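2024-03-11 09:14:02 DEBUG pipeline.ingest accepted 1 chain
2024-03-11 09:14:02 DEBUG pipeline.ingest length=504
2024-03-11 09:14:03 DEBUG pipeline.predict start
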Amino acid sequence: MMNLLPKLCPNLRKPLEIIEIHMGKAGKQPMSGQGHNRNRTSARLLIYILQSLFVWFLVLSGLSLSAQPSQEKTELKRILFVFDASQSMWGKWEGKSKMELAKALLIRVVDSLQQVPDTELALRLYGHQFPYPPGKCTDSKLEVAFAKNNHFRIKAVLRNLVPKGTTPIAYAIGEAAKDFEGMTDSRNMIILITDGLEECGGDPCAVSRELQSKGIIMKPFVIGLGTGMSGELDCIGTYFDADDADNFAKALNLALKQVSKDLTTVTVELADGNDVSRVTDIVMTFYEQPGNTPASSFVHTLTSSGIADTLYLDHHPQYRLELHTRPSLNLNQINLLEKQHNTIRIPVLQGKIQLSASGSMPFGKELYGLVKRCGKDEIIHVIHAGQAEDFLAGCYDVEVLSLPRLIFEGIVLEEKQTRHITVPQPGVLVLQRRHPVIGDLFVEHDGKLVWIYSLDSESVTTESLVLLPGNYRVIYRASRARKAAYTRELNITITPGKSLKVKL
């Protein structure tokens, strides 16, 4: 199957630490713990995303509409749509009810999925039988069971659907377990479409966890038709509001990948020095081995309940994981268990290094520093004055790109510590000339002259140099002079925040 995940190509780095990996059984992955906003944008985005559902299934199946069925034996995929038909679906989107738009879009998706082999669909509704008020908290029914070629039945039910009742989400998900009874030969998936929260006192999150732990279903996908529901609904499964095109597309992509043939789930736990998994917001890349081909990249994320988000990968015999820390952390030869949940735990101890000047920089110039491991030549990162940036705990040298260069050696950084590097406020040397000169600028250091700059040999205008405080010497002669005896020396002292004009 073609790998469709983003092919990013960050620089490869050598592994720096040994990292541990733990494997768990399917269904034991951590659960995500995470009002109606009816606007015109939401409807357009829902149209865009649901229409793309068919395309993704074709791609994931490695087929097109005109392709012949594969001769390889493939795993059956069963998708149960759990659809909200409560009275709140009368809410308006672009002059039409949410029910009217959602039905039309879902019908289009179901119609398209008819072309995808090894896929069976079913439809469970809730809130469609008993009017609200008062409604009924057992108002959910499997209207179309799993079967081959049942797409026309599903579309017929949807066309005649009228919003009526309340919102018993927990009951509907619990009843869905019966819809998959005896179906152990397939990948079982629920896609829940709702515009509201649980209204019957049930706990849809607990019900979802139970079904997953029993291996009845994979982690569900929840489409929220509105905003403000993520805190209550993302514990059911992979959740996203319908009014954000970019992230909603990615979320639906994950939903489809959950029923793809070779999917494997992974949680990457980043532990601090107290062995608590609360480090996050680090970009990480999985590479296929051998060959180090970039497969998937993610920004590490903690859910609202503080646990690492679940990642979805196409199964590959072996991966390498790189955390794009400074410097990077690498784990080689990761053998993930296929179609099971895997947990990778990595200690990430970080502190911060901050570069700053003791005063303002002349002419709005920027100040930068090259960060290296102690005694090493390789540049790990370039830091900018004023920003405190994360680095792994360890020993560093920082070379400040000032004039002259300023080197801070042996900076020991500990976890959760911020090391401040302060550069003295510079001054300005203004060199004025009427004729071109040839020469160099030196700084006096430990009784020696250390070269730092060559004068512009063709300039007849003013030359301004930003210099750190100290004693300097300019050694030069007129470029048209033909005798060394015409060499001149000027001793100069630069003071912080001051400008000094010198005529050559």
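2024-03-11 09:14:41 DEBUG pipeline.report The two ends are 72 Å apart (CA to CA).
2024-03-11 09:14:41 DEBUG pipeline.predict end
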